[in-house]
Design goal:
Helices cover 74% and strands 0% of the residues. With 413 residues, the chain is an all-alpha fold. Helix 5 runs antiparallel to helix 6 and helix 11 packs antiparallel against helix 15. The longest helix has 41 residues. The chain is globular, with a radius of gyration of 21 Å. The chain starts with 17 loop residues before the first helix and ends with a helix.
Length: 413
Protein backbone atom coordinates (compact mmCIF):
# COMPACT_ATOMS: atom_id res chain seq x y z
CA UNK A 1 0.00 0.00 0.00
CA UNK A 2 2.88 2.36 0.78
CA UNK A 3 5.52 1.07 -1.65
CA UNK A 4 3.79 -0.18 -4.79
CA UNK A 5 5.00 2.20 -7.52
CA UNK A 6 6.98 -0.52 -9.30
CA UNK A 7 4.25 -3.12 -8.92
CA UNK A 8 1.20 -1.23 -10.10
CA UNK A 9 1.70 2.35 -11.32
CA UNK A 10 -2.06 2.74 -11.76
CA UNK A 11 -2.51 2.78 -7.98
CA UNK A 12 -1.25 5.79 -5.99
CA UNK A 13 1.43 5.26 -3.36
CA UNK A 14 0.12 6.01 0.12
CA UNK A 15 2.89 8.08 1.68
CA UNK A 16 2.33 7.10 5.30
CA UNK A 17 5.13 7.43 7.87
CA UNK A 18 6.44 4.57 10.01
CA UNK A 19 4.63 5.99 13.04
CA UNK A 20 1.34 6.25 11.13
CA UNK A 21 1.73 2.67 9.95
CA UNK A 22 2.36 1.56 13.53
CA UNK A 23 -0.85 3.30 14.65
CA UNK A 24 -2.78 1.68 11.79
CA UNK A 25 -1.41 -1.75 12.75
CA UNK A 26 -2.61 -1.26 16.32
CA UNK A 27 -5.90 0.52 15.61
CA UNK A 28 -7.90 -2.68 15.09
CA UNK A 29 -7.19 -3.64 18.67
CA UNK A 30 -8.67 -0.45 20.13
CA UNK A 31 -12.06 -1.65 18.95
CA UNK A 32 -11.25 -5.25 19.84
CA UNK A 33 -10.38 -4.24 23.41
CA UNK A 34 -13.79 -2.59 23.93
CA UNK A 35 -15.97 -5.54 22.90
CA UNK A 36 -14.25 -8.73 24.06
CA UNK A 37 -15.68 -8.66 27.60
CA UNK A 38 -19.22 -7.62 26.49
CA UNK A 39 -18.95 -10.20 23.70
CA UNK A 40 -18.04 -12.94 26.17
CA UNK A 41 -20.89 -11.97 28.49
CA UNK A 42 -23.47 -11.84 25.69
CA UNK A 43 -22.30 -15.16 24.24
CA UNK A 44 -22.86 -16.77 27.66
CA UNK A 45 -26.33 -15.24 27.96
CA UNK A 46 -27.62 -15.37 24.37
CA UNK A 47 -25.54 -18.16 22.85
CA UNK A 48 -22.68 -17.74 20.37
CA UNK A 49 -24.27 -18.61 17.02
CA UNK A 50 -25.88 -15.35 15.95
CA UNK A 51 -23.22 -13.17 17.60
CA UNK A 52 -20.58 -14.90 15.48
CA UNK A 53 -22.70 -14.56 12.34
CA UNK A 54 -23.24 -10.80 12.72
CA UNK A 55 -19.66 -10.12 13.83
CA UNK A 56 -18.11 -11.97 10.89
CA UNK A 57 -20.46 -10.32 8.40
CA UNK A 58 -19.56 -6.85 9.69
CA UNK A 59 -15.84 -7.74 9.47
CA UNK A 60 -16.29 -8.89 5.89
CA UNK A 61 -18.12 -5.74 4.77
CA UNK A 62 -15.58 -3.42 6.42
CA UNK A 63 -12.72 -5.34 4.78
CA UNK A 64 -14.28 -4.88 1.35
CA UNK A 65 -14.62 -1.13 1.99
CA UNK A 66 -11.04 -0.66 3.26
CA UNK A 67 -9.39 0.16 -0.11
CA UNK A 68 -11.99 2.82 -0.89
CA UNK A 69 -11.48 4.41 2.52
CA UNK A 70 -7.67 4.31 2.34
CA UNK A 71 -7.46 5.77 -1.17
CA UNK A 72 -10.03 8.52 -0.67
CA UNK A 73 -9.90 9.55 2.98
CA UNK A 74 -6.34 8.98 4.19
CA UNK A 75 -4.61 7.12 6.98
CA UNK A 76 -6.72 8.45 9.88
CA UNK A 77 -10.03 7.39 8.32
CA UNK A 78 -8.45 4.05 7.44
CA UNK A 79 -7.43 3.68 11.10
CA UNK A 80 -11.03 4.38 12.17
CA UNK A 81 -12.31 1.69 9.81
CA UNK A 82 -9.89 -0.72 11.47
CA UNK A 83 -11.29 0.28 14.86
CA UNK A 84 -14.79 -0.64 13.65
CA UNK A 85 -13.41 -3.90 12.34
CA UNK A 86 -11.95 -4.54 15.79
CA UNK A 87 -15.29 -3.81 17.46
CA UNK A 88 -16.82 -6.63 15.43
CA UNK A 89 -13.88 -9.01 15.85
CA UNK A 90 -14.01 -8.60 19.62
CA UNK A 91 -17.16 -10.74 19.71
CA UNK A 92 -15.62 -13.68 17.85
CA UNK A 93 -13.01 -15.29 20.11
CA UNK A 94 -15.12 -15.19 23.33
CA UNK A 95 -18.05 -16.62 21.37
CA UNK A 96 -15.84 -19.41 20.04
CA UNK A 97 -14.78 -20.23 23.60
CA UNK A 98 -18.42 -20.33 24.75
CA UNK A 99 -19.18 -22.59 21.80
CA UNK A 100 -16.27 -24.93 22.62
CA UNK A 101 -17.37 -25.20 26.26
CA UNK A 102 -20.67 -26.70 25.09
CA UNK A 103 -19.22 -28.99 22.42
CA UNK A 104 -15.92 -30.31 23.84
CA UNK A 105 -15.51 -33.57 25.83
CA UNK A 106 -12.74 -33.35 28.44
CA UNK A 107 -10.66 -36.12 26.81
CA UNK A 108 -10.58 -34.21 23.52
CA UNK A 109 -10.26 -30.68 24.92
CA UNK A 110 -6.70 -29.82 23.85
CA UNK A 111 -7.11 -31.23 20.34
CA UNK A 112 -10.48 -29.57 19.82
CA UNK A 113 -9.31 -26.17 21.03
CA UNK A 114 -6.10 -26.44 19.04
CA UNK A 115 -7.78 -27.54 15.81
CA UNK A 116 -10.49 -24.87 16.02
CA UNK A 117 -8.24 -21.97 17.03
CA UNK A 118 -5.46 -23.02 14.66
CA UNK A 119 -7.82 -21.74 11.99
CA UNK A 120 -6.23 -18.36 12.73
CA UNK A 121 -2.84 -19.81 11.80
CA UNK A 122 -4.23 -21.59 8.74
CA UNK A 123 -5.85 -18.36 7.55
CA UNK A 124 -2.51 -16.58 7.90
CA UNK A 125 -0.71 -19.38 6.07
CA UNK A 126 -3.08 -19.02 3.12
CA UNK A 127 -3.31 -15.24 3.14
CA UNK A 128 0.38 -14.30 3.33
CA UNK A 129 1.59 -15.84 0.04
CA UNK A 130 -1.68 -15.16 -1.77
CA UNK A 131 -1.53 -11.53 -0.65
CA UNK A 132 1.96 -11.24 -2.08
CA UNK A 133 0.80 -12.44 -5.50
CA UNK A 134 -2.37 -10.34 -5.42
CA UNK A 135 -0.38 -7.21 -4.54
CA UNK A 136 1.92 -7.87 -7.51
CA UNK A 137 -1.01 -8.60 -9.85
CA UNK A 138 -2.78 -6.08 -12.12
CA UNK A 139 -5.50 -5.74 -9.46
CA UNK A 140 -2.98 -4.58 -6.86
CA UNK A 141 -3.26 -4.56 -3.08
CA UNK A 142 -7.02 -3.66 -2.99
CA UNK A 143 -7.76 -7.17 -4.27
CA UNK A 144 -6.40 -8.58 -0.99
CA UNK A 145 -9.19 -6.84 0.91
CA UNK A 146 -11.84 -7.84 -1.63
CA UNK A 147 -10.89 -11.53 -1.58
CA UNK A 148 -10.66 -11.84 2.19
CA UNK A 149 -13.89 -9.88 2.63
CA UNK A 150 -15.76 -12.19 0.24
CA UNK A 151 -14.43 -15.20 2.16
CA UNK A 152 -15.94 -13.70 5.31
CA UNK A 153 -19.33 -13.29 3.62
CA UNK A 154 -19.22 -16.91 2.43
CA UNK A 155 -18.35 -18.18 5.93
CA UNK A 156 -21.23 -16.19 7.45
CA UNK A 157 -23.78 -17.74 5.09
CA UNK A 158 -22.50 -21.29 5.71
CA UNK A 159 -22.37 -20.78 9.49
CA UNK A 160 -25.94 -19.50 9.57
CA UNK A 161 -27.16 -22.86 8.26
CA UNK A 162 -24.78 -25.33 9.96
CA UNK A 163 -23.93 -23.66 13.29
CA UNK A 164 -25.67 -24.25 16.63
CA UNK A 165 -25.20 -22.92 20.16
CA UNK A 166 -24.95 -26.37 21.75
CA UNK A 167 -25.60 -30.09 21.11
CA UNK A 168 -28.98 -29.66 22.79
CA UNK A 169 -30.10 -27.18 20.12
CA UNK A 170 -28.52 -28.78 17.04
CA UNK A 171 -31.22 -30.11 14.69
CA UNK A 172 -29.34 -32.88 12.89
CA UNK A 173 -26.68 -34.58 15.04
CA UNK A 174 -27.49 -38.08 16.25
CA UNK A 175 -28.90 -38.73 19.72
CA UNK A 176 -25.84 -40.86 20.46
CA UNK A 177 -23.42 -38.05 19.66
CA UNK A 178 -25.51 -35.54 21.59
CA UNK A 179 -25.59 -37.76 24.67
CA UNK A 180 -21.85 -38.46 24.47
CA UNK A 181 -20.94 -34.77 24.38
CA UNK A 182 -23.32 -33.78 27.17
CA UNK A 183 -22.13 -36.54 29.52
CA UNK A 184 -18.40 -36.08 28.92
CA UNK A 185 -18.04 -32.29 29.02
CA UNK A 186 -17.02 -31.23 32.52
CA UNK A 187 -18.44 -28.30 34.49
CA UNK A 188 -20.64 -26.95 31.68
CA UNK A 189 -24.32 -26.82 32.63
CA UNK A 190 -27.15 -27.00 30.08
CA UNK A 191 -28.73 -24.11 32.01
CA UNK A 192 -25.69 -21.81 32.08
CA UNK A 193 -27.46 -19.08 30.08
CA UNK A 194 -29.79 -18.51 33.03
CA UNK A 195 -27.02 -18.39 35.66
CA UNK A 196 -26.18 -15.18 37.46
CA UNK A 197 -22.71 -13.96 36.52
CA UNK A 198 -20.32 -13.97 39.53
CA UNK A 199 -18.66 -10.69 38.56
CA UNK A 200 -16.97 -10.00 41.91
CA UNK A 201 -15.42 -13.44 42.15
CA UNK A 202 -14.19 -13.37 38.56
CA UNK A 203 -12.61 -9.92 38.88
CA UNK A 204 -10.84 -10.81 42.15
CA UNK A 205 -9.62 -14.24 41.05
CA UNK A 206 -5.82 -14.66 41.13
CA UNK A 207 -5.78 -17.28 38.32
CA UNK A 208 -7.84 -14.93 36.13
CA UNK A 209 -5.32 -12.12 36.57
CA UNK A 210 -2.41 -14.50 36.00
CA UNK A 211 -4.10 -15.56 32.78
CA UNK A 212 -4.50 -11.89 31.82
CA UNK A 213 -0.73 -11.39 32.19
CA UNK A 214 -0.07 -14.42 29.98
CA UNK A 215 -2.45 -13.16 27.31
CA UNK A 216 -0.87 -9.69 27.49
CA UNK A 217 2.61 -11.05 26.79
CA UNK A 218 1.35 -13.51 24.15
CA UNK A 219 -0.43 -10.78 22.18
CA UNK A 220 2.53 -8.39 22.40
CA UNK A 221 4.97 -10.85 20.89
CA UNK A 222 2.57 -12.44 18.42
CA UNK A 223 1.18 -9.27 16.89
CA UNK A 224 4.49 -7.44 16.86
CA UNK A 225 5.99 -10.28 14.83
CA UNK A 226 2.99 -10.89 12.58
CA UNK A 227 2.38 -7.25 11.70
CA UNK A 228 6.04 -6.26 11.34
CA UNK A 229 7.67 -9.42 9.92
CA UNK A 230 6.91 -8.49 6.32
CA UNK A 231 8.43 -5.00 6.72
CA UNK A 232 11.50 -6.43 8.47
CA UNK A 233 12.22 -8.94 5.70
CA UNK A 234 11.59 -6.41 2.94
CA UNK A 235 13.57 -3.46 4.27
CA UNK A 236 16.42 -5.16 6.12
CA UNK A 237 17.06 -8.10 3.77
CA UNK A 238 15.55 -6.81 0.54
CA UNK A 239 13.07 -9.61 -0.21
CA UNK A 240 10.68 -8.71 -3.02
CA UNK A 241 6.97 -8.79 -2.26
CA UNK A 242 6.32 -12.26 -3.76
CA UNK A 243 9.13 -14.04 -1.92
CA UNK A 244 8.33 -11.88 1.11
CA UNK A 245 4.79 -13.26 1.13
CA UNK A 246 6.08 -16.84 0.99
CA UNK A 247 8.64 -16.24 3.74
CA UNK A 248 6.07 -14.43 5.91
CA UNK A 249 3.88 -17.53 5.61
CA UNK A 250 6.65 -19.88 6.77
CA UNK A 251 6.40 -19.08 10.53
CA UNK A 252 2.61 -19.58 10.69
CA UNK A 253 2.96 -22.85 8.72
CA UNK A 254 5.41 -24.15 11.31
CA UNK A 255 3.21 -22.80 14.11
CA UNK A 256 0.18 -24.58 12.65
CA UNK A 257 2.06 -27.90 12.59
CA UNK A 258 3.35 -27.37 16.13
CA UNK A 259 -0.18 -26.62 17.39
CA UNK A 260 -1.25 -30.10 16.33
CA UNK A 261 1.86 -31.66 17.90
CA UNK A 262 1.39 -29.82 21.21
CA UNK A 263 -2.33 -30.66 21.38
CA UNK A 264 -1.91 -34.41 20.85
CA UNK A 265 0.97 -34.59 23.34
CA UNK A 266 -0.99 -32.57 25.92
CA UNK A 267 -4.12 -34.75 25.58
CA UNK A 268 -2.00 -37.90 25.90
CA UNK A 269 -0.25 -36.59 29.03
CA UNK A 270 -3.53 -35.47 30.59
CA UNK A 271 -5.29 -38.74 29.75
CA UNK A 272 -2.47 -40.79 31.34
CA UNK A 273 -2.32 -38.29 34.26
CA UNK A 274 1.48 -38.15 34.19
CA UNK A 275 1.29 -34.64 35.63
CA UNK A 276 -1.50 -32.34 36.79
CA UNK A 277 -3.44 -30.30 34.26
CA UNK A 278 -2.16 -27.11 35.92
CA UNK A 279 1.48 -28.15 35.47
CA UNK A 280 0.78 -29.23 31.90
CA UNK A 281 -0.65 -25.80 31.08
CA UNK A 282 2.34 -24.02 32.63
CA UNK A 283 4.93 -26.16 30.84
CA UNK A 284 3.23 -25.61 27.46
CA UNK A 285 3.02 -21.87 28.01
CA UNK A 286 6.62 -21.65 29.18
CA UNK A 287 7.85 -23.39 26.04
CA UNK A 288 5.79 -20.91 24.03
CA UNK A 289 6.75 -17.65 25.69
CA UNK A 290 10.14 -18.20 27.32
CA UNK A 291 11.24 -20.17 24.27
CA UNK A 292 10.17 -17.37 21.95
CA UNK A 293 11.91 -14.80 24.15
CA UNK A 294 15.20 -16.72 23.86
CA UNK A 295 14.76 -16.92 20.10
CA UNK A 296 14.23 -13.16 19.78
CA UNK A 297 17.24 -12.35 21.97
CA UNK A 298 19.41 -14.66 19.84
CA UNK A 299 18.64 -12.47 16.80
CA UNK A 300 21.55 -10.25 17.88
CA UNK A 301 24.02 -13.03 17.09
CA UNK A 302 23.00 -13.62 13.47
CA UNK A 303 23.68 -11.36 10.53
CA UNK A 304 22.69 -13.36 7.46
CA UNK A 305 19.08 -13.48 6.22
CA UNK A 306 18.76 -17.29 6.30
CA UNK A 307 19.64 -17.49 9.99
CA UNK A 308 17.33 -14.57 10.78
CA UNK A 309 14.39 -16.21 9.03
CA UNK A 310 15.08 -19.50 10.84
CA UNK A 311 15.19 -17.83 14.26
CA UNK A 312 12.03 -15.81 13.67
CA UNK A 313 10.30 -18.94 12.38
CA UNK A 314 11.30 -20.88 15.50
CA UNK A 315 10.19 -18.02 17.75
CA UNK A 316 6.75 -17.85 16.16
CA UNK A 317 6.39 -21.64 15.89
CA UNK A 318 7.05 -22.07 19.61
CA UNK A 319 4.06 -19.84 20.42
CA UNK A 320 1.96 -22.88 19.46
CA UNK A 321 2.48 -24.00 23.07
CA UNK A 322 0.12 -21.23 24.15
CA UNK A 323 -2.77 -23.08 22.49
CA UNK A 324 -2.43 -25.87 25.09
CA UNK A 325 -1.35 -23.37 27.75
CA UNK A 326 -2.95 -20.01 28.44
CA UNK A 327 -5.37 -20.01 25.49
CA UNK A 328 -7.02 -23.25 26.68
CA UNK A 329 -7.05 -22.07 30.30
CA UNK A 330 -10.38 -20.14 30.37
CA UNK A 331 -12.24 -23.39 29.71
CA UNK A 332 -10.41 -24.97 32.67
CA UNK A 333 -11.27 -22.18 35.10
CA UNK A 334 -14.98 -21.86 34.37
CA UNK A 335 -16.75 -23.86 31.65
CA UNK A 336 -20.02 -22.04 32.40
CA UNK A 337 -18.46 -18.59 31.97
CA UNK A 338 -15.54 -19.42 29.67
CA UNK A 339 -16.55 -16.86 27.04
CA UNK A 340 -16.60 -14.11 29.65
CA UNK A 341 -13.26 -15.20 31.12
CA UNK A 342 -11.71 -15.20 27.66
CA UNK A 343 -13.32 -11.84 26.90
CA UNK A 344 -11.92 -10.20 30.04
CA UNK A 345 -8.44 -11.74 29.98
CA UNK A 346 -7.87 -11.60 26.22
CA UNK A 347 -9.50 -8.17 26.03
CA UNK A 348 -7.12 -6.70 28.60
CA UNK A 349 -4.33 -8.65 26.96
CA UNK A 350 -5.22 -6.97 23.68
CA UNK A 351 -3.85 -3.71 25.06
CA UNK A 352 -0.44 -5.18 24.28
CA UNK A 353 -1.50 -5.86 20.70
CA UNK A 354 -2.15 -2.12 20.48
CA UNK A 355 1.05 -1.14 22.24
CA UNK A 356 3.37 -3.68 20.58
CA UNK A 357 3.06 -2.61 16.92
CA UNK A 358 2.70 1.07 17.90
CA UNK A 359 5.85 1.08 20.06
CA UNK A 360 7.67 -0.87 17.36
CA UNK A 361 6.68 1.87 14.92
CA UNK A 362 8.24 4.50 17.20
CA UNK A 363 11.38 2.42 17.90
CA UNK A 364 11.97 1.59 14.23
CA UNK A 365 12.16 5.04 12.64
CA UNK A 366 14.47 3.75 9.91
CA UNK A 367 13.07 0.47 8.57
CA UNK A 368 16.43 -0.44 7.00
CA UNK A 369 18.27 -0.22 10.36
CA UNK A 370 18.73 -3.76 11.71
CA UNK A 371 19.74 -2.52 15.19
CA UNK A 372 16.46 -0.66 15.62
CA UNK A 373 14.59 -3.84 14.78
CA UNK A 374 16.67 -5.74 17.35
CA UNK A 375 15.64 -3.25 20.03
CA UNK A 376 11.99 -3.91 19.19
CA UNK A 377 12.61 -7.67 19.43
CA UNK A 378 14.30 -7.25 22.85
CA UNK A 379 11.26 -5.40 24.17
CA UNK A 380 9.00 -8.23 22.97
CA UNK A 381 11.28 -10.80 24.66
CA UNK A 382 11.11 -8.97 28.00
CA UNK A 383 7.32 -8.83 27.84
CA UNK A 384 7.18 -12.55 27.02
CA UNK A 385 9.34 -13.38 30.05
CA UNK A 386 7.46 -11.23 32.58
CA UNK A 387 3.96 -12.29 31.46
CA UNK A 388 4.69 -16.01 31.55
CA UNK A 389 6.43 -15.71 34.93
CA UNK A 390 3.16 -14.38 36.40
CA UNK A 391 1.25 -17.29 34.84
CA UNK A 392 3.73 -19.85 36.24
CA UNK A 393 3.56 -18.39 39.75
CA UNK A 394 -0.16 -17.70 40.07
CA UNK A 395 -2.00 -19.59 37.30
CA UNK A 396 -4.25 -22.63 37.77
CA UNK A 397 -6.18 -25.13 35.66
CA UNK A 398 -8.61 -26.14 38.42
CA UNK A 399 -12.33 -25.42 37.93
CA UNK A 400 -13.00 -22.41 40.17
CA UNK A 401 -15.68 -22.78 42.83
CA UNK A 402 -17.68 -19.81 41.50
CA UNK A 403 -18.34 -21.77 38.29
CA UNK A 404 -21.14 -23.45 40.29
CA UNK A 405 -24.13 -21.10 40.64
CA UNK A 406 -25.45 -22.91 43.71
CA UNK A 407 -22.18 -22.43 45.61
CA UNK A 408 -22.18 -18.72 44.75
CA UNK A 409 -25.76 -18.35 45.98
CA UNK A 410 -24.95 -20.21 49.21
CA UNK A 411 -21.98 -17.95 49.82
CA UNK A 412 -24.08 -14.82 49.23
CA UNK A 413 -26.66 -16.04 51.72
Amino acid sequence: MTDNAKLNPNLPVLSWTSSQKGIIMGSLFWGYFLTTAPGGHLSCKWGPKYLMFVAMLVCAVISILCPFIALNYGWFAFSLSRVVLGLAQGFLLPSVQTHLAKWTPLQERNRTIAIVLSGTQFGTVLTMPIAGYLAASPWGWPSIFYCTGLCGVLWSVVWLFVGADSPESHPSISDREREYIITTRIGSSSHSQGMKTPWRHILTSRPVWALTAAHFSFNWGKWTLITELSSFLRHVYGYDIKSNGLLSALPPVCCLLMVLVFSYIADFINMKEFISLTLSRKISNSIAQWGSAIGLCTMAFVSNPTSAVILLTVSIALTAGSFTGSIANPLDLSPNFTGLIMGITFGLGTLSAILGPSITGFIVTDETDRHQWLNAFYVAAIVYFVGNTAFVLFGSAEVQWWNDAEKVEDENE
